[in-house]
Structures are given as C-alpha cells and as structure tokens.
Write a structure and sequence with these properties.
By secondary structure, the protein is of the alpha+beta class. 20% of the residues lie in helices and 34% in strands. It has helices at 38-46, 92-101, 112-118, 134-146, 164-181, 192-198, 216-219, 336-341; strands spanning 2-11, 14-23, 27-31, 55-58, 61-64, 77-80, 152-156, 185-189, 201-206, 209-215, 234-239, 241-244, 249-252, 259-262, 270-272, 278-283, 287-290, 301-313, 317-324, 329-334, 349-354. Bound molecules: adenosine-5'-triphosphate. Adenosine-5'-triphosphate is lined by residues 11-12, 14, 32, 34-40, 190. Keywords: ATP-binding, Cell inner membrane, Cell membrane, Membrane, Molybdenum, Nucleotide-binding, Translocase, Transport.
Length: 361
C-alpha cells in the first residue's frame, strides 16, 4: 500500500512540483532546508491545503483528484505540530481522550492505558496541562493524535521547539510509538539525527522538488549525504540491546560485531526502530582504527572490520567505509596522515575502536 501525491503549486517565487509515492509503512522522513516545501506537501496530504489539479491517494482511497475531495476530518489522520496546542482547561487525560471520544468505537484500535504506557504518561494523567514541561506536552499531543486511531500520522517538526535534552528524552518514545502502534508516519524534520534515529526511508526535498527518495541505509551510503552536513558522517547500527553488566555497560549487536554501550540512560543513545530492534548512532569521528588489536588501552570496543572503500572528504579528512562481521556498515573518519601511515587500502581487515562513552551522547 502506498501514499501517492502529485501536486504543482506556484506561490510567489516558490514552486512546488512533486510526483511521488512511498510505502505507507514505517516512518518516512521529509528532509530538506527551510522553505523547500515540506510543510506545504504535508498540508496537501492532510487536506489542509487544496491545490487545484493535485492528486492524493492513500492505498486505494482517493483523498483528492479532479472529481474527489475528502475533508481533513474524514481522512482519519493524526496531526502533530511543533507546538503541542493542548486544550488548557482539560487535564492530561481529558486531552488524551478528546479525539478518542469523537472516534466511532468500531474504529478505535488503541486504548488509553496502552498509549499512556507507550508515551510514559501514566503518572501525569490527572495533571492540568499547564503543569507540564514542553516535552511532556508534546508526548500528550502525540498520545492525543494516536488515540484517534488514525490510519496515518503526520508529524511536522514535533521536536523542533524542544531543547536538546528534552528532545533526547522524547525520541525513544517516538520510535517506540512507530513500532508499537503500527501506524505509518510522515515526519518532517531538518535534523539529521532525528532522521537517523527514527526513519525507515527519507525523501530529500530541495526547492519544491523531490531530490531523492530512498531507504535510510541508501541515504547513508553516500559520503556527501545531506544527513552528514551537521556532525559529519555517521553510521546507524541495528541490533538487540542486552542487559547491563556490573559496570553499567550494555551489550549491543550480535557476537563478533558486539559493542558495549555505556548508557546510564540508554534512551539517550539508542532508539527502537519500527522493526523492534534497537538503533545506535555512531559518529564516524568517534571511531579510530588500528592494525593490531591493542591490549593495554581504555577503549573497550574493538571490532574487526573490513575496509570497503576510502573516500577523501573536504577539510583534509578521510572516510573509511567499512563493514563489520555481521555486514553492517561502520564509517570511520581519520586524517589523511593516519590513512597513509597505516597504508590503509580496500579489502584490508582492521580493528575499529570505539569508546563506550562515545555511545552515550
Ligand atoms: N501562506 C503562504 N503564502 C505565501 N507563501 C507561503 C505560504 N506558506 C508557505 N509559503 C512559502 O512556500 C515555501 C515553502 O514553505 P514550507 O513551509 O512548505 O517550507 P518548509 O520546507 O516546510 O520550511 P520550514 O522547514 O521552514 O518549515 C516558502 O518559500 C514559504 O515562504
């Protein structure tokens, strides 16, 4: 089943020209610079914007074409924006149940207890909403949208108004929600870390057009990916997260590619994906490389990796594109001096060294 949108729109200097479709499954991130048309596209999908000649299909439901127009409230959507815009006179429960009560009982697929557990809201249910933090308010907004049992969730920068710490706290809830609810999501963001932690696929937009639509893995296979613009290249590893050992480190991933993740609150590091595994983001600049397995060293994670390719990056840096024993890609950023000194080449097996605390961020 696909979400399909075809739309053209001229608004002053801005032109939107989109003809695209993607599977209505998992999390699709719309990523691009400010003003490239992400919100306009989302509003067209939602039916908040009626553009002449546009076509919007959700599976075999036609929401808009030349002869058909389905109003926003009939599309069965969950909408969450940057600002939570909760109803101030109602408690958390009152807000959560607002749309639920207006959803016919035959269509209700999610109930208050499971949604409040998914979003960690159990202890807040009786609070007035003006006694909540920004992150808590946004979790209530997500819960309220979910409890309408939508067939599609549209999220327009739901984390953008939150500070970094709050954003880190809420991100695992968002990814758990994608997994547990089974509701497809469209997430607008210009934050690469949100895409890397949450998305299954990415649609890159630029000047009102679709530049690329690909899986997250494909998006990250390019050394010059727009996702690497802020913090440099990074990898996303998927695996099972084990229980903590006596030093507070948790094992992550299969044997041979196993990492120790030092995470007092693993929410900061790992996010669950819509397939149920845990996702770990590793910045390429946090990984070093050695030809031998160093013994007397504080770094705990020593992984055998094979170099697939070396890329010269702008700014006098070298990116090693490597794969681990389980086949997952691990990117490593080093200086040209190190690459030369170690005589690194494609096909070579080396040790990738990653500090456990680098996985705490
Ligand atoms: N109501 C409007 N009237 C005129 N121009 C508008 C209107 N709404 C949006 N625009 C213009 O349309 C273009 C696309 O805006 P849109 O909000 O879709 O971009 P965006 O990618 O979501 O940006 P941001 O990330 O900053 O939210 C921008 O140039 C914007 O100025």
């Amino acid at each position: 089943m696909n979400l399909q949108i075809k739309a053209q729109l001229q608004r002053g200097d801005f032109r939107l020209d989109v003809d695209t479709r993607w599977p209505a499954q998992g999390v699709t991130a719309l990523f691009g610079r400010s003003g490239c048309g992400k919100t306009t596209l989302l509003r067209i999908i939602a039916g908040l914007e009626r553009v002449r000649g546009a076509q919007v299909w959700f599976g075999d439901e036609c929401w808009q074409n030349d002869s058909q127009w389905v109003a926003v409230e009939k599309r069965r959507l969950g909408l969450v924006f940057q600002e939570a815009s909760l109803l101030p006179h109602l408690s958390v429960t009152g807000n959560l149940l607002y749309g639920y009560k207006r959803t016919p009982s035959t269509l209700r697929r999610l109930q208050l207890p499971e949604v409040s557990a998914m979003l960690g809201l159990e202890s807040l249910l009786s609070r007035p909403v003006d006694a909540l933090s920004g992150g808590q308010k946004q979790r209530v907004a997500l819960g309220r949208a979910l409890l309408c049992s939508p067939q599609l969730l549209l999220l327009d920068e739901p984390l953008a108004a939150l500070d970094t710490q709050t954003k880190r706290e809420i991100m695992p809830f968002l990814s758990r929600l994608a997994q547990a609810s089974g509701i497809p999501m469209v997430l607008i963001t210009h934050a690469p870390d949100e895409v890397q932690r949450l998305a299954d696929r990415v649609m890159f937009m630029c000047d009102g057009r679709v530049d690329d639509l690909c899986t997250l893995q494909q998006a990250m296979a390019k050394p010059d990916s727009p996702l690497f613009a802020d913090e440099g290249p990074s990898s996303v590893l998927e695996g099972e997260l084990g229980i903590a050992d006596e030093h507070g480190a948790r094992l992550f991933g299969p044997e041979g590619s196993q990492l120790r993740v030092q995470a007092p609150d693993d929410a900061n590091t790992c996010t669950q994906t819509s397939t149920g595994t845990t996702r770990l983001r590793v910045l390429a600049r946090d990984v070093s490389v050695a030809l031998d397995d160093p013994a007397r060293i504080s770094i705990r994670n020593h992984l055998v990796v094979t170099i697939r390719q070396l890329h010269d990056l702008p700014g006098n840096r070298v990116l090693l594109d490597t794969f681990m024993q389980d086949g997952q890609t691990l990117l490593i950023e080093i200086t040209p001096w190190s690459a030369q000194r170690l005589a690194l080449a494609a096909g070579q097996r080396v040790f990738a060294l990653i500090k456990s605390v680098a996985l705490m961020r």
